[in-house]
Amino acid sequence: MRAVRCHAYGDLANLSVDEVPVPDPGPGQVRVAVHAVGINFADGLMVLGQYQEKPPLPFVPGLEAAGIVEACGEGVTRVRPGDRVAALVDTGAYAEYLVAPEDRLFPVPDGMDLVTAASFPVVYGTSHVALDRRARLQPGETLLVHGAAGGVGLTAVEIGRAMGATVIASASSPEKLAVAALHGAGHLIDYSHEDLRARVREITDGRGADVIYDPVGGDVFDTSLRCIAWEGRLIVIGFASGRIPQAPANILLVKNISVIGLFWGAYRQRDPQVVRDSLDTLFGWYGEGKLKPHISHRLDLAEAAAGIGLLRDRQSTGKVVLTTGRTE
């Protein structure tokens, strides 16, 4: 089978498409014939050796995929051959087959194709746990989403609207803001030439945003502290800008602000039921038409490096998906 492998940390050029044996499932494991793979920002960090976890070399990147169950190991009871599933793994998704524990597989609902399913769990799961469990977003509150046309940002726009919030989208171009508007943003801020702080205060009649969703960090984080409401919650998702910011404690004290972290992947090890319950809710919202996943690029598995580059260089909106050539 084809698999994309990283042979050295530090550069996307260290990725190659290799022929490797098809893996066999062990006890409690399932082999999935992969149809599509979702690319995430973390994949690029992992290849560079900059992620929280560094798998031993060589490794197959990729956190999520979707496909058809082909074989089950001893003791598997939740799925059977022929089932359509989405898979969440620590590594190994960039391949024509993957093996995963059965509790890392989620049934794909009727009406959702497998390419869409591959784009769904990480970004929607991240935003839902961030906004519902961590930030406790309430109906009627104002949610400011940075990077609002990106992989996680666009899902935060949709989920915020589904939860009854007024959504302000910030992004770096009119084209990206147009995508956010189509997915439910009620107000738009182009921070490449608008004053972010002034516009948020204008939109909220001087009050500021109740919840701020920040996958960008850097200067955007700094400005967020100055346009957040009394008792607001700023949720830290990542640092796409490249700079990890520091929060002045005096600002937190004076405005009674909470700065909250969200490393969604940790729930898969520490409290996997949180992930399962969240995805159950999200798949239900998808079935109700509340969520409309946006995929800007579909590439062949062999183009994995180019796909990661699209995310790194902010040339994509929503998700980038790799396909293996299989059809349903």
UniProtKB/TrEMBL annotation:
Residues 10-322 form the Enoyl reductase (ER) domain. Pfam families: ADH_N (PF08240), ADH_zinc_N (PF00107). SMART domains: PKS_ER. This is NADPH2:quinone reductase. It comes from the Bacteria. SUPFAM superfamilies: GroES-like, NAD(P)-binding Rossmann-fold domains. InterPro entries: ADH-like_C (IPR013149), ADH-like_N (IPR013154), ER (IPR020843), GroES-like_sf (IPR011032), NAD(P)-bd_dom_sf (IPR036291), Zn-ADH-like_protein (IPR051397). GO terms for molecular function: oxidoreductase activity.
